[in-house]
Amino acid sequence: MSRPVLEETRIHPSIRGRIADNHADTVKAVQAAVASNKVVVVGMAMNPFPRKARKLLDGLGTPYLYLEYGSYLSQWRRRLALKMWSGWSTLPMVFVNGTLIGGAQDLQRLVDSGEFTALVAPKIAG
């Protein structure tokens, strides 16, 4: 699967740096969290869907890291940078083993199918 991303040759050289540096600290923080935690939930205050994902994970007893970026009226630019980086347009963003699995409803589907349990199960060295 590939998603459309504007080719760098179609971006004027004078703004390439601004695009590359757009809240790069936030993107790097999420990348680091995803690399060092089995399950990461990226959300925002006041949004019920990150709460649903966290409640589901809490109910399963699954440890996770929660990163919150503002509310509806604050830090929207940071969330926009994350959305542009991931290609996922809504919150939460749920990562399992370094892979974006989607949002709260996608997490629920994986739990219901039993696939989530397999994803977070400890790997047995053989």
From TrEMBL:
Gene3D superfamilies attached to this UniProt entry: Glutaredoxin
- Cite the GO molecular-function annotations of the record: glutathione disulfide oxidoreductase activity
Q: Which CDD domains match?
A: GRX_family (cd02066)
UniProt-listed Pfam families: Glutaredoxin
Q: Name one GO cellular component term.
A: cytoplasm
A GO biological process of this protein is: cellular response to oxidative stress
Identify the residues that the record assigns to the Glutaredoxin domain, covering every copy: 40-101
The superkingdom of the source organism is Bacteria
Alphabetized InterPro entries for the sequence: Glutaredoxin (IPR002109), Glutaredoxin_subgr (IPR014025), Thioredoxin-like_sf (IPR036249)
Q: Which family does it belong to?
A: Belongs to the glutaredoxin family.
Q: What is this protein called?
A: Glutaredoxin-related protein
* UniProt organism field: Pseudoduganella namucuonensis
